[in-house]
Design goal:
Elements lengths: L2 E16 L1 H14 L3 E12 L2 E13 L4 E21 L2 E20 L9 H14 L1 H25 L6
Antiparallel strand pairs: 1-5, 2-3, 3-4, 4-5
């Protein structure tokens, strides 16, 4: 893998009622709709007296150019998840109750095909290329990825009805 740089990190926490399937689907569709391919690296589920504990790791990536790739990592941690029923507008609706935490991390990857890695001279030239030739391009792509990461966090908070802040 080429050079990774974290451009933004954020977290969403929700304790109370929320629908696991809806949150899962919303995040998956958000990433797909924004051009990201989603890979679920791991899914672990444990049952206990308090409910389910679920740990999920997603890696969503998007090729921007032959040199740049965006990656958004989502690390889910769900504690004490139980099925629940709530009444909305007089109708009983099935949902979930528990503690949900999702960490988001946006990374930009430069030279993801490792074309500049073969020889020390190429690595040196890559440094000069990035520092002097494409510095503003790197900044623009980093800002774009930061916006994507902030947007998915903000949309997740809105979906879960968490006040912005």
């Amino acid at each position: 893998m080429g050079q990774k740089e974290t451009v933004y990190k954020g977290k969403v926490n929700q304790v109370g009622y929320w629908d696991y399937t809806e949150v899962y689907t919303m995040l998956f569709n958000w990433l797909k709709d924004h051009g990201y391919g989603v890979n679920e690296d791991s899914y672990k589920e444990k049952l206990s007296g308090n409910g389910k504990e679920i740990i999920i790791n997603w890696e969503a990536s998007k090729k921007v150019t032959d040199y740049f790739k965006y990656k958004i990592k989502l690390n889910w941690h769900i504690l004490g998840m139980k099925d629940a029923e709530v009444e909305i507008d007089g109708k009983k609706t099935k949902t979930n109750k528990g503690e949900l935490e999702i960490e988001f991390k946006g990374e930009i990857i430069k030279d993801y095909e490792k074309r500049w890695e073969d020889k020390p001279v190429w690595k040196f030239l890559r440094g000069i290329y990035e520092q002097y030739v494409i510095r503003t391009t790197i900044d623009e792509y980093s800002d774009d990825l930061e916006d994507d990461t902030r947007d998915i966090i903000s949309d997740t908070k809105a979906f879960l009805r968490i006040p912005a802040g």
